[in-house]
Amino acid sequence: MLRKEELPGFDEECVLVKGISLESMPGLTESAVLYIQPCASVQGRVNCELRFGIPRRGAEESFFDFPALSRILNAYSDRFAETRVSSSLGVARVQWRGKKILIFKNGRIVIREAIDEEDAKATIDFLSKLLAPSIICDKCGQVLLNCAAASCRECAVEHASLSSLPSNLLWVGGLQRIRDLVKALIERSSFVKDVKREESITSVEYLSTQSDRIVHLILDLIAYSGNREELAVGILLLKRAWDLGLTLEVLDRIQRYKSKSN
Ligand SMILES: [Zn+2]
Ligand SMILES: [Zn+2]
Predict the structure, then answer these.
(1) For residue 162, how far is its CA from the centre of ligand 1 (angstroms)?
(2) Whole-prediction pTM value?
(3) How high is the mean pLDDT of the chain?
């Protein structure tokens, strides 16, 4: 669960710094911010319901940006037994490690068939980090993806620098793999210009597969980040990787257009 945590270079009113809160839910008793009860369908399991909000501001109708949330869940879908997102209804359904989870646009989360309270809380922690890039910041009104990349122009102080790069094993290994993949990508894209038409199309497919792998690695780093700095670096990397994916899409279109007109 994202509580307030220091983050040098960012405005303290940005949700990346002030974190998120648990809000009481309409229909339940006023004090029920986290509702855990025995599961009716599977004996010994528990169900849990909660609603995320913005500290000092409370519950919001649009807590998650659904296009961004849907993109994250789809890119990470091999980690879920089921992934279904309906952007028009503002609800997503995933199955993660035996739990059935509903995620609503307004920040409401329903977790069914968790092993115990601890398992439910670990799931909340995992989801609050994995989905953090799609949370709408109340400081600037944009997704945290833009705050972390300083492209909202409100949340990151000018010349924001991350004081130290994450140094734990997961990050060191993860960043090295991302570096290798990006390197391979750059080498292959300069190669694309010279090869024959048919080959260049497969190369673009290869490139987008590589960029999907990069996005997946970054989502791992985000979901298992140990502090706010790691999370912010992860979100910034995700923004850049998606920008790269967009560049590849444009490249692909140009190439297909060229091969048609030749
Ligand atoms: Zn922000
Ligand atoms: Zn912002």
Answers:
(1) 16
(2) 0.87
(3) 86
Which ligand is closest to the CA of 138, given by its number? 1
Residues 118 and 177 in one domain: no
CA of 205 to the centre of ligand 2 (A): 33
- Residue 137 CA to ligand 1 center (angstroms) comes to 5
The domain of 120 spans 15-148
**Number of separate domains in the chain:** 2
CA of 195 to the centre of ligand 1 (A): 44
Distances (CA, A) of 50 to 39, 41, 89, 190: 15, 20, 19, 49
| 81 and 34 share one domain | yes
Same domain, 86 and 22: yes
Q: pLDDT digits over 200-230, tens only?
A: 555 667 777 888 888 999 999 999 998 888 8
Residues 138 and 178 in one domain: no
135 and 75 assigned to the same domain = yes
Give residue 106 CA to ligand 2 midpoint distance, Å: 19
Measure the CA–CA gap between 127 and 20, rounded to whole angstroms.
12
Confidence of residue 165 (pLDDT cuts 50, 70, 90): low
Contact 68, 145 (CB under 8 A): yes
- Sign of the Cα torsion 224, 93, 207, 203 reads positive
- 144 CA distance to ligand 1 middle (Å): 6
Residue 136 alpha carbon to ligand 1 centre in Å? 8
Q: 131: how many CB neighbours lie within 10 A of its CB?
A: 25
pLDDT reported for residue 162: 60
